[in-house]
Amino acid sequence: MNDESRHCLCIPATPEDLPIKILDVNIVGNHVAGQFAVLFQQTLDFSTDASLALSRAETLLLYAWQELNTGKWSDVNFNWHKLYAAVSWLKAVATFRCRTTGESSTPPEVWLDIIKICDMGHLMGGDVWEGILLRTISAAEAKISELSPAVFAEPQRKKRTETVTICDVLHPIEELDRPSLAHFQAAFLRLKRPLMLKGILETWPALSKWSPEYVRSICGSRTVPVELGKRYTDEDWGQELMTISAFIDKYIYMLDNPDKKIAYLAQHDLLSQAPLLRDDISMPDYIAFAGDDDPDMNAWFGPEGTVSPLHHDPKDNFLCQVFGEKYVRLYEESESEKVYPHESTMLFNTSQVDVEDPDLERFPKFAEAVFSDCILRPEKLAG
Ligand SMILES: O=C(O)CCC(=O)C(=O)O
Fold first, then answer.
1. Which of 52, 139, 264, 331 lies at a CB distance of 3.0 to 4.6 Å from 335, suitable for a disulfide?
2. Model confidence over 339-367: pLDDT tens digits?
3. What is the pTM for the complete model shown?
């Protein structure tokens, strides 16, 4: 492997620069720790057969995957996450060794696969070895744009045709045009009522730049979790990991999707995954007054017709619309009983009522529940 490829894959000058003892044997067991050590040596010793390292990496990933998906995600010991992340990077290196001859230049498809493998590692495991997965992804992205500039070319905004009728607003949420911070604090935080803020996002470059094609050009090769189905409360709802590019083709442009199945890239920390998108927005000052020093920042990206069922979040929310429009309905906490929260522990924060078509025989009190509503368009922000 030449120096440039080693550099792109973040392989240190000497293997000793990567600590091998990162796992607690008491948690992962002697066998897994032993297999990990062999994989580590095999992958970074370029005189060995890389296909052996690759199949050992696959086996270890499967093992770690099972551990990660047994029981509650929050109860999984962090050693399993670390194992998944570290093995993913070793798999990326082994894949590169299997797919390249060392003589001709590496085709962009190989770098795209490296990004996929590292993204999976990062999604499931976080990161190890000082952010090696994200560093490898950045280097691979740079390599792709150098080899094949068209993949990341500056896009044209594609025209979309709206066909979904959006609900009528019945009890409009109060609108404020750039309120002072003091006014905002009094109106929203003290009275605890929702507000629609106007004129706040005007300076965001995202408003003029973002479109499906722009997002594709920035992070089309990145893997993200996608919710399949119209609502997460539906029986046939599921989740899948796919690249953003595949998501845009199949679920935004509905290519190769004859039944027009709906999917939603929902509640995902996309802006950390794609820092260039993060540069197109700025945190509204009002957030500093919401008493959260470390706010979560999630993105929702979907086709027309996607629905987030009526639910409650543990934190206050600022919902900003950058593209398209969205009907939002809010119920006060005092109305909880009338919106019939699910009884299961998984969905306890979600209403059983389909707001668009409520079954008033099953949920009679829903008819009396008091709500406020609005349509969010790119220039407005609901707090
Ligand atoms: O925009 C959406 O579809 C849902 C947003 C949401 O659930 C939230 O802000 O908590």
1. 331
2. 999 987 778 889 999 998 999 999 999 99
3. 0.84
